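User: Quick sanity check before I run a bigger batch. Here is a single chain. Can you write out its predicted 3D structure?
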Amino acid sequence: MIELKPKRNRESQTHVGIGMILLKFRTFIALILLIVFFSFSAPNFLTSHSLILIASHVVLYAILGIGMTYVIVAGGIDLSVGSIVGLSGMIAGGLIYEGLALPMFGVKIFFNVFVVILITLMMGALVGAVNGLLVTRFHVAPFIATLGTLYVARGAAMLRSNGETFPNLVGDPGLGNTGFPVLGAGNLLGVPLPVWIMAIIGLIAAYIFKKTPLGWHIFAVGGNEKAAELSGIRVKRVKMFVYMFSGFCAAMVGLIVSSQLVAAHPATGETWELNAIAAAVLGGTSLAGGRGTIGGTIVGAFVIGVLSDGMVMIGVSEFWQMVIKGTVIVLAVIVDQIQRNLQNKLVLQSRSAA
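Assistant: Done. Predicted structure follows.
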């Protein structure tokens, strides 16, 4: 005997299914709506100059967001990335502008640009390792641990030059340290070099997420840390890796910004951790951990970039911009919770139907 499903149940499943589709593509929908809105509100929004400016900002938010996605998926948070951006710029700027002084030998060493970049990236990963140690070894809550590192890194950036700027980072041919501006302003096959850097980092991060045991372990730790530990996953190593990767990404952003400006300022990157979190959450990364995609985060970075620059073009005050960005983050979390509830509802309906 064939039992037909009640019409009301079929309609309920259809509505839930449509809602899930809309929520799945919410970031794309938001991006399209923003582009349409600012195209009418700001006449110069779609000019080549404006698009290049937006792209330069999107690259920075995307790279920060990629590192943040790893941390959030693993069940943590990293509030120190903005300060690492500023510290990285000051480290690179200081090495190019005044070199590394060794008073005991009475000499000053100037490194070539490749070595400067390598040292700066290692420094970013080291700060991330400190965050990882605080979380895994000393069991400090990620929010508190990275908040403390935020202040330490920002203070170290200020101390590096007593709050002053390292200007004119073009280097000296006689010292062999020229070429730093190419990192932020160079082109390869007609595409800006920072875009290539973002693409490479994004592809590597996505590959690790989807195709390697490490990626699966990151999702497992964020989904259920106790179960992951009982299954043999080295939870502490996984957490150390995600915080070091986040620090590495932040250091790369610091290098790109300093290269674009041909100068380094210790206040660079203030509040950028909010942009990184917003890009990840808008892209579908769950603050509860265990879920997120790199592609979604990059689209989320486009939303943040278009929103930020669009508000500037139509004359929205800086204070209202902060209010709107904060509201966007809260709304993104609410929408994420709605999506989780709908997914649970679909699971229950499928079980009851079976």
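Residues 60-269 form one domain.

User: Great, the batch can go ahead then.
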